[in-house]
Design a protein that fits this description.
The chain is mainly beta. It has a domain of about 60 residues: Rieske Iron-sulfur Protein, CATH 2.102.10. Helices cover about 15% and strands about 45% of the residues. A 5-stranded antiparallel beta sheet has the order 5-6-7-8-9. Strands 2-3-4-10 form a 4-stranded antiparallel beta sheet, with no helix packed on it. Strands 1-12-11 form a 3-stranded antiparallel beta sheet, with no helix packed on it. A hairpin with a 2-residue loop joins strand 2 and strand 3. The chain is globular, with a radius of gyration of 17 Å. The structure holds FE2/S2 (inorganic) cluster (FES). The site of FE2/S2 (inorganic) cluster has 10 residues, from loops.
């Protein structure tokens, strides 16, 4: 483990994010409601900076027509293709309905094929193959195939410290 002093705690107030380079790797440190998190700032899908992503929550359907929104601010959505990452575990999530909307928005604007990127498909089949099912079957957010790297983060003598593996 290598220890990295990131910043004085006072420089990372609630809601702040800081992007740093640790041993050549971009790492994003976030203060979410007073709790610190650190994860790789390279999206495991296609390499976008997660630092530009929005923080959202987790939505599940407990039964048809009943939705539960939880963990506000703990899910980081990648700005490129909208895969979402749990800041605690780095595990990815996707919302199949949102992915289909993204396909239209991006393909019309720039001609970029999200089908090729693996994020969306014209049909439902490739989404199902990746563990994401159609909106009519889905509990809104499905576990995805990607895993963002997370790092231990703590406060030592009023400084934020992140550990990276050797
Ligand atoms: S690069 Fe992050 S979701 Fe595609």
């Amino acid at each position: 483990m290598a220890r990295h002093v990131i910043a004085p705690v006072a420089d990372l107030p609630v809601g702040a994010r800081k992007r740093v380079i640790l041993e050549g790797r971009p790492v994003l440190v976030l203060n979410i409601k007073g709790e610190l998190f650190a994860l790789s700032d390279t999206c495991p899908h296609r390499g976008a900076s997660l630092a530009e992503g929005i923080l959202t929550g987790h939505v599940v359907a407990t039964e048809p027509g009943t939705y539960v929104y939880s963990r506000e601010g703990e899910i980081l959505r990648c700005p490129w293709h909208a895969w979402e990452f749990d800041v605690r575990t780095g595990r990815s999530w996707c919302d199949p309905k949102h992915m289909r909307l993204m396909q239209h928005a991006v393909s019309v604007a720039s001609g970029v094929s999200l089908l090729e990127s693996g994020c969306v498909s014209a049909s439902e089949a490739p989404i199902k193959e990746r563990g994401c099912v159609s909106a009519s079957e889905a509990p809104l957010q499905q576990e995805g195939p990607y895993q963002a790297t997370t790092f231990p983060v703590r406060v030592e003598n009023a400084y934020v410290v992140v550990d990276t593996p050797d």
